[in-house]
Amino acid sequence: MSRVLIAGESWITHSIHVKGVDSFTTSAYAEGVGPLRRALESRGHEVVHLPGHLVPAQFPDDAAALAEYDVVVLSDIGANSLQLSPEVFERARPGADRIDALRGWVGDGGGLLMVGGYLSFTGFEAKAAYRNTVLHEVLPVELLPEDDRVELPAGARPQVTGAGHPALGGVTGDWPSLLGYNRVRPRPGAEILATLNGDPLVAVGDHLSGRAAVFTSDCSPHWAPTSFCEEWDGYADLFGGLIQWLAQ
């Protein structure tokens, strides 16, 4: 099966506790990669997780490093984290253009999946910023210039528009509701396989010799409630199908 790199899907929380006139701080590390990792491993894929805080220093620099993988998944990790290695950001020395390397790797036959989140696509306050990079031309959707998040606190059910496409992994029946997504626009020539609130949820397309896909909601809470990412049998079929299609 395929070897998959998942970059992102982790965070560090720094909290201030106030008790009367006194305060103190605590910090905690958390990962949201669990549901996606388990789903892909259950389909026989080998998964390597690169947490968000390690992406600036350890994301693959060039085609040779990317060649270790069949599919790269970017999930809730902004463009700055890929572009600003410690060498560049902290020491002001020229370094690798890793987003351009990723674009070239996809064009040469690699597979790229972007999963939604506050730091995916354009993202929270436009901070994910992929619209301003060359990776934008690889994606099967066009990104908004402004904050693209759509919150659906009451939930909304996806609508399948491309039933039978292999990238959906044979999923049948209704999908559970989702609680939000990143709004994007269809790109000419792309295939929109599912929508949410009338906007693309799952889209796939070719880029030269490679393939790219998007899932514009999250792969874990909060946009993907446990009814979607833990209790729904179709979750593993869906993401397994996307990875298999991307790996060609």
Automatic annotation (TrEMBL):
Keyword entries, A-Z: Glutamine amidotransferase
InterPro entries associated with the record: Class_I_gatase-like, GATase1-like
Keyword Metal-binding appears in the UniProt entry: no
This protein's name: Glutamine amidotransferase
Domain (Putative glutamine amidotransferase): residue spans on this chain: 3-247
